[in-house]
Amino acid sequence: MKILLTGFDPFGEDKINPSIELVKKVEEKIGNAEIFKLEIPTVFKKSGKILEENIKRIRPDVILCIGQAGGRSSITVERIAINIDDARISDNLGEKPIDEKIRDDGDNAYFSNLPIKKIVEEIKKENIPAEISNSAGTFVCNHLMYESLYLAKKYKNIRAGFIHIPYLPEQVINKANTPSMDLENSLKAINIAIKTIINHNGEDVKISGGKIS
Ligand code: PCA
């Protein structure tokens, strides 16, 4: 099994992005899976292009994208990506699209086809906070998740999804009351997610991951 694992470069005011730092630390072989690592620029259009080039090159069975979600306190496994770019800040090439469709011929939204509930359950078993997220935002992470699911359909038989991780402690030194998680725990969580993906090819577990609002 081939897993394409991606992380982003730093963006906005941050000098570091825990997602790519974590990806660098993942083993290249986990069980029977080969892990192909890729750094993606935090740039709307380029992110999807680079992903597609690497899908053609690697032909992965699974695409797992990781991104930073500053302000979140847990590992958040994303349920859905929507067909819209709506930027609050510029991407790393200065682009700031507002209400632009990602793909004219794409669905309004795509659901992750990874076992998201099982992943959350397994991460929590190791005492790391994790939950389902019902929005990956409208910035480059949502864009890349949308592209990965659009391309998963185009190239067939690919499972794809996205996990957001919190800031690192060093990123919140001057940000009062902002949660963080150390790289060791985020890495542990992503390793659990990868193992869960390898072991669960069928139905997800039927447990609630819902929210009232
Ligand atoms: N987080 C941003 C883009 C890159 C990243 O790591 C996001 O959540 O959209």
TrEMBL record:
Its main location: cytoplasm. It comes from the Bacteria. One of its GO terms (molecular function) is pyroglutamyl-peptidase activity. CDD domains: Peptidase_C15. PROSITE patterns: PYRASE_CYS, PYRASE_GLU. Gene3D superfamilies: Peptidase C15, pyroglutamyl peptidase I-like. Belongs to the peptidase C15 family. Removes 5-oxoproline from various penultimate amino acid residues except L-proline. This is Pyrrolidone-carboxylate peptidase.
